[in-house]
Amino acid sequence: MTRGPTLADVFDRMRDQLALEAIQLDRGQLRPLAPEPPTGGFPTLIGHLNLVQPNRIQVFGPTEIRYWTERGHLERTRLLAQLFRDDLYGVIVSDGETPPPDVVARAREGRVPLLRSRENCERLISTLRHELGRQLAARTVLHGVFLDVLGVGVLLTGASNVGKSELALELVSRGHSLVADDAPQFSRPAPDAIEGEAPEVLQDFLEVRGLGVLNIRSMYGDAAIRHTKRLRLIIHLEPLTSALRAQLDRLNGNFGSNDVLGVPVAAMTLPVAPGRNLAVMVEAAVRTFLLARRGYHAADHLMQRQESAIGKDGQRCD
Predict the structure, then answer these.
(1) Which of 72, 97, 213, 316 has its CA 20 to 30 A from that of 240?
(2) 164 part of the active site
(3) What gap in Å lies between CA 111 and CA 90, rounded to an integer?
(4) What tens-digit pLDDT sequence spans the chain (318 residues)?
(5) Strand runs labelled E in 118-246
(6) Active-site residue among 250, 294, 313, 318?
(7) With a threshold of 0.85, does the pTM exceed it?
C-alpha cells in the first residue's frame, strides 16, 4: 500500500504557491496524513485554531495570535497542553505573523511541524483543504475506456476484444472526448462524487487493435481530450447471446447501478451484435440517462398513453 503524504510532502508541493516557511520540520518524525471522517465527527483535518473540537492541522491567523498573546501564563500553559495533543499533525501560522514563543518552543521540543505562510488565513485554509482532499481521496483503477459523452463521464467496460477501443475511437470522431484508456484511475474527492483521470504515462493515448497506439490529441486536437471527468454512467458491453437476450428488459432497458468506492453509479448493459451502431446507442443511452435525471422516463410515458387509450376505448364500448 502506498504511503500517504506527510506535512513535509505538502510543504514541498505547496511551498511557492502558499509562500511557506518551515520554522520546525523534522522530516524523520512525520506521520502520514489521514482523510477526514466521511460524515461529521471530529477531528477535522485543517481549520482555524479550535481547541474545543480540534483540527489535526491547527491554523493561527491574526485573530488567533492576538487571542493567544492576551492570555495569562497559566492559561497559555493549559492551552499548550490542549494544542499539542498526540493526534496533532502540525501548526501553520498565516498572514506572515510571528508565532508565539511558547508555541515555537513546544513545537521544537515535541518535534511537531510548525510552518508559516504569507498568505491570508482564509485562502491558506481553502487551498490546503482542496489540495489535501485531492491527495487523500480514496482511489481505485477500473479496466475500460473513460470518455466525456455529451458532457457526461461514461466508462465503457467489457471483456477483452468486445470492441471498447473501437467504440471509443468512433465516439471521439463524432465529437466526444477521451479521458483515459485501459486503466483509468478513479478517486472520491467528495462523499458523493467519483472522478476519473488517465495515468500520466497513458494520457492522450488510445490503443486500437489493428491500428496500434493512437495519440488522440495529435489526431483530433485538444478538444478531444479531457484531463478529468466525474463518472456518472457505466456502460458494460456484452455479446448478445441467447442467455443475455432472455434477461433484457425490452421496455425499461437494463439500467441499474454499480458501487464505486462506496458511491452508487448508474450502470447499464449494452448488447453487442453485428450490425448494431454502438456509438449511436451510447449517445442514446446518455440522453436517456440525462432525461431520467430530469424525471422523464419514456416507458412510463408510453404506459400512460396506453392506459389513456384503453380508457377511451372503454368509453366508446359503453
Answers:
(1) 213
(2) yes
(3) 10
(4) 445 688 888 899 899 999 999 999 988 767 888 776 554 444 678 889 888 788 889 999 999 999 999 999 999 999 999 999 888 999 999 999 999 999 999 999 999 999 999 999 999 999 998 888 777 777 899 999 999 999 999 999 999 889 999 999 999 999 999 999 999 999 888 778 999 999 989 999 999 999 999 999 999 999 999 999 999 999 999 998 888 777 877 777 788 999 999 899 999 999 998 889 999 999 999 999 999 999 988 888 888 888 888 877 666 655
(5) 138-141, 144-149, 152-158, 177-182, 185-190, 193-197, 205-208, 212-215, 228-239
(6) 250
(7) no
Catalytic residue among 13, 182, 230, 297: 182
Collapsing DSSP states into helix, strand and coil, what is residue 215? strand
Catalytic residue among 56, 106, 164, 226: 164
Nearest-CA neighbor of 186 among 230, 128, 236? 230
Catalytic hit among 27, 31, 143, 209: 143
Q: For residue 132, which amino acid is it?
A: L
* Helix, strand or coil, per DSSP, at residue 14: helix
- Which domains, from first to last, does the chain contain? 7-136 (3.40.1390.20), 138-302 (3.40.50.300)
Nearby residues of 226 by Cβ (< 8 Å), 6 or more positions away: 148, 177, 178, 179
Where b means 16+ CB within 10 Å and e means fewer, 19-40 reads ebebbbbeeeebeebeebeeee
Strand ranges, E, within the chain: 20-24, 46-48, 57-60, 90-93, 114-117, 138-141, 144-149, 152-158, 177-182, 185-190, 193-197, 205-208, 212-215, 228-239, 255-260, 263-272
SS3 content of the chain, % helix, strand, coil (to 5): 35, 30, 35
By the 10 Å C-beta count (0-12 exposed, 13-18 middle, 19+ buried), 87 is classed as: exposed
Instruction: Mark whether 182 is an active-site residue.
Output: yes
